[in-house]
Every structure is written in structure tokens, then in C-alpha cells.
Sequence to fold (603 residues):
Amino acid sequence: MSFWSFLTAGSRFRAVVCMFVVASQWFVPSLLREKKDVKDQQTEDQSVPPLSGLRPSVSSLDPAPGENSSLFSLWTRFWLHPNFDSVEEEIQASTVLSFSRAMPLNDEQPSSADDHGSDVESCSAGESSGSNPSPSSPPTASPPKVVDCTSELFGLRLTHQILMDRHYHMRQDPLPEGSLLKMISDNMHKAFWDILEEELNDDPPQYGQAISLLEDIRETLLFLLTPLRSGGPPSSLQTRILEVLDLDLIRQQAHNDAVDVQGLAAFVIATMGRMCAPDRDEEIRKLRESTADLVTLFREIFRVLDIMKVDTINYFIMGLRPFLQQHGVAYQSEQFQKVLEKNPSALDRTTAWIRSALEELLPAGWRPDGGKDRVALPGPTQILNTAYLQILTWDYSRGPLPETLVSDEQRLQDLQQQLRRSGTVNQVLLIVFSSVGRPVQDLPSLSDRLKKMVAVLLDGMHHRGFDLGEALKGVGVKVCCELNKSLSGRGYPPLSAALQDALRGQICSVAHHDNPVRSRVEDRVQQYFKTLLSSSGPNVKPDEVPASLAAIRPELAALAANFLSLVKHNRAVYTPFYMEVIKELLFSQAPPAQPAGGQTPSP
Fold:
């Protein structure tokens, strides 16, 4: 088989592009990447067809009887289809990469080849050298220890994303213009379609590439028709697809130069029209009315099929969400237990995180075997609340999050960044109102204008290259201008030059960590979140913020609600594991071992 014949199928073609890029160590391909873009709701509504907008032929997504007990079987039956290799591989790769940063590998050297397990043996069988490694070789971390957990991590991550983000969906994005990946993809696609055109224009025509395309189209249509059906009699449409796209018959026709490629394309388009969502009817109409050549028509068919694949995934996600809301917590806990059984070091960073919270609550030098110097031990709830508070100020440059929070890393980073910016805005407003006094107090409109203006000027303050000192200089200038404008409009004299200089100086001093206003605001924020974590049930009232934080009440309440939602779900899933860690730390006679690397990440 020629190289280009291998690239016939759309999914295999994309896989080769991905492997080429990974081998050249430039990019990790992301042909289909997950999106969490609540801000652009209109775009999301256009990209995800409504649940009621799909044809009945693709609406049979309820699991078969007896399958509820194995949620992962639903994932594998849907996601591990040949046409979704790129989706599954991308999510699994990102999951393994995320967790491998937070889960140190078990570096114990097995005593025999049998200890490796079948996965390792299968990997070893493919090596060029059939000999065993020398006994004197130093022990090294074994990548299969992470790969063995790929299925569990994949299901764990995807379930968590669906549960925590009601807007979660898959989305096919164009590759970045000018990127190496787009250049490779465009060139290989062009070469492939050029070869197809040459084969069809030969005298007599060659149909090898066209038959491979039809095979890929047939597999995709059958998959889109019944993504979860694992048995039972075929539907009439499924039977019709198999009859018309009979590859053996088509090969016989090709041998006799009697293939009606145009007729087969028309059948494919008509079938797509019966299966697609109403939002895609316009795309189908364009295909039916197309007068382009066969190569261009097939390219458009594959483009629309890719859109239909994404629609089917998103419809499946929407249909599965109610089931996950009932059983997702138990499923995630079960999957993490499997990860822990395969990789005993999967809680090392979590242990270090809880130990750090415990050390904050206990006196210095405390040990489980403290003898006469016994102290009252904090309860598990107090320990976990202290640990969760540390996440709000976690230093991501010093180490990844605990393993049990890795799935929420992006959400927690966003929350931390927004909290820091809101805190800085509040610090600036406190300085302004305390310095200027009565003429600018009790003016909600002025406070809102100043808050929005300062927030815009501080946008991006979490980036490495952001100069907070320079940004605050600009904030001081803008604030003085806005204050003078407001004072003049209400008959007050403008601020004196000395007061403006003092005000700008105080605003710039917020950049220093030891600034008293900054320290006070940060302490009030910590106390606010601590109070919320200590409350339970209906007693939680995020809107009740301290008086010194009243200027950012709406923003703070929204951030607190998001944080409490993350904490609530995290507790539900991982409390059994946390309790075991706390029990070990509080009552073991020997101090627990340090995690891999010998360092405890401090937030």
C-alpha cells in the first residue's frame, strides 16, 4: 500500500498529521479542543444545536438496560470509535500530562518481569532489542505507570468537566493562521486531494482513493446513526447504507470501470440530510445544489461530516449530563480509587497539601507521639477548610495543585486571578475615599465608574510581563482626572496638586506586599472565605461581605459562589481519601514520607 493510500481516511489522515508534528517536537495537536467560554454565549449557542433540534434518528441515546452500572462503558463505546481518534487521544494526552505533573511516578524497581503487568510486556515486545535490561541499571520512573491509568483519568476528567460546566461542549476550531501545524495540515490535505483528482482524471479512472473515502464515509454515517447501539436488529436506514455503500460491490464495479461516483455522492448527501440537525440543513442544501467537481464535492462532504460529528458529541454530552448529576460523584470516586490502586503515589501532593494545613493549625514541633505535650487536635473539617483557603493563594510557579484538584486547575487559576484583581481595585477605592473624604463618598455612580476604570487598567495583571507598579501609576493619573471631573460637576473645587501627588503615591504603594491597605484587604478576603467555608447549608450567604470590601461586593459574591461550588463537589468526591490522609498524619507514629522531589509545595 502506498503512503498516500494510508492517508485516505479522514481520521487516519489527521492522525498522521498529529504524529508528524509530535515527532518534530513542535506542537501537541489540538484539532478538536474543549471550550469553556461563558462570556461569548451567543457564539456557543450557534455552535451547539439545541437538544430538541436533532432528528429522531439520532435521538436514541439512552443506555441499554443493565449499562448504568458501568458508566465508563458508555464513554468507551462512544469516544473510542475510529472516527474519534483525534478527540480521544487529545483529551487523554492532556489528562495524562496534567496528572503526571501532579502524580509522581512509582519509582520502585520491579523484582521480575512479571511484576510489570501485561501492558508493560506488550510495550517491551515492540522494542528492537529483545534482551532484558541489565540488573545493574539504575531504577527509573516507568511511564507505563501513568499510561495504565489513562482510561480512568480520561473518564474522571471528562465527567468532571461536564458536571462543573453546564456550557461544556466540544468545538472544532480552525488551526492558528501561520502556525506550523496549519502549514503541515494544509499541505498534506492539498497533496491528498490532488492525488485523488489525478486518479479520477486518469484514462481509465482509478478508484482506489475514492473507495477509501467512501469507506470512511460509510463508517461515519453508521456511527452517527447509532452512536450507542451495541446490538439488536439494524434500522432500515442502516441497512440501506450498507447496501448502497457495499465496498465489495463498488470494487467490482471499479474493476469494470462502472462506478457511479456522482450517484454515490448524491446518496451520501441525502442520507446526511436525514441525520443532521436542523441547524445544518443549509449546509446540506448547499451540497445538493453544488455544481463543483467531484473532488471539491467530497471535500465539502467531509467538512460537513466533521461538523455533524461534533454535533453528535455535544448532543451526547447534553443527554448524559442528567445521568452524571445523579451518579457522577460515585463514578469519579471509583475511578480515582482505581488510579490510586495502580499508582500508590497518586496522593503524594495531596498529602503534602493537607500536611501544610495541619502545620498551620498545630504548634511548631508537634508530633503524633508528643507524650505529655498533647494539644487539642483540629477536626477534619477545620483541616480541610484551612487547606482549601491555601488554594486561593497557591503559587503555581512552585508546584502543581494537589492531585485531587488538578481537574479544576484552570478554574481555580481564573478565580485566583479575578480575586487578586478585585482585591487591588478595592484597595485603590479605599485609598481614594479615605484620602478625599466627604466630597466623593456616598456616590454609587462615581464608585462604579472608578471601579470599572481601575479594573480595565489592571486587566492582565496575572501575566508574567505585567508591571503592576507602572499600571498603578496610570491608575493614579486616571483616578485624579475622574475625581476632578466629578468634583467640578458638583460645584466642588478640584483636588490640590499636593493631594493629587499624595493620592498617586498611595495608589502606587499598593504594589508593595507590606502595604498596610493591601495587607488589610487581603486579610479581610481570607476571613470572608473562611467564614463561608465554616458555614454549612442555607447558612452560607456570599452577599454578606465585610464593610471594607463593600466596593467589590457583587464580584466577591460571584467568586465565592463559584469557589464554594468547586469545594462542595471536591469534598463529595474525595472526602474518603482526605480522611485516610488526615488519619495517617495525625495518628501515625512516624512522620509520613516526603513526596517525590523531596519538596512540599507551599501556597
Summary: The radius of gyration is 30 Å.
